[in-house]
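Input.
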Amino acid sequence: MQETAVKKRSAKGGISLESRRARTAWLFLAPSLIVIALVAGYPLFRTIQLSLTQTNLLQFPLKSNFVGLLNFKFLVQDAQWWRSVQNTVVFTVVSVAAETLLGLGIAMLVNAKFPGRGAMRTAMLIPWAIPTVVSAQMWRWMYNDVYGVINDMLMKLHLTDKAYAWLANPRLMLPAVISVDVWKTTPFMALLLLAGLQSIPTELYEAARVDGATPWQNFVRVTLPLLRPALLVALIFRTLDALRVFDAIYVMTGTTPNTMSMAVYARQQLVDFGLLGYGSAMSVGIFVIIGLFVVAYVVSLGVEVD
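Output.
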């Protein structure tokens, strides 16, 4: 009643309580919005602007010639660009699928009560805590065909009779890089899914057991439906991160066409060749592709995420 009276008095004065609250909220949000506009908005605007020019960083003095959509025309006709898109999509689909399945299994394991559960939760985060550049270089040494420990283990277990050049064989390069990403990022998926599992009330499982449900029925009819929001959030985060992959691929295989991602190819054009305009067009292309994935997730799964 008192709040209603305040609203009426505010309305008589010309400004409602809701309007004042909204104005106050915008005042508090303004600093953050300004920072976001400067940190994210301006670089994006500048990248789009440069993508419409022909600019070469290796020329001095630096000159920018407006060419319109010519860079994008070349990009559509660039076979290596489409190969890098294919590599990135394959990397994303395979790695995210494997990380989700393994992460779900690990999350369900560490969610159970057993001695040493705390130590296992801590240990599983070690791969994720190691910087990507460090772990990529470590695995690069392990994959070496001369002194790599992976070949040594396979030969000692009699699984192979020869050493493989994992990062030199065109058929093995991409699977090798994907395996490293799965090893490193699965703990991140497990951590997100573990948080979702712990939010499920135990009373539901107890009621299901009373009704005679099997463990598989518990998983399908109780765990998966209630875990779906956390699962979708984890999928979105990992998919967007995988589409921007750069460091692991660049450290392990450099600019080899068989594994080159979109980000690696854009970096090559920008830094190695100095093609600022063309490289910026590639950056815009990456932004558009990631945006399409975001829209697809929001449209198809947005209701459940809410």
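The first strand starts at residue 53 and ends at 55.
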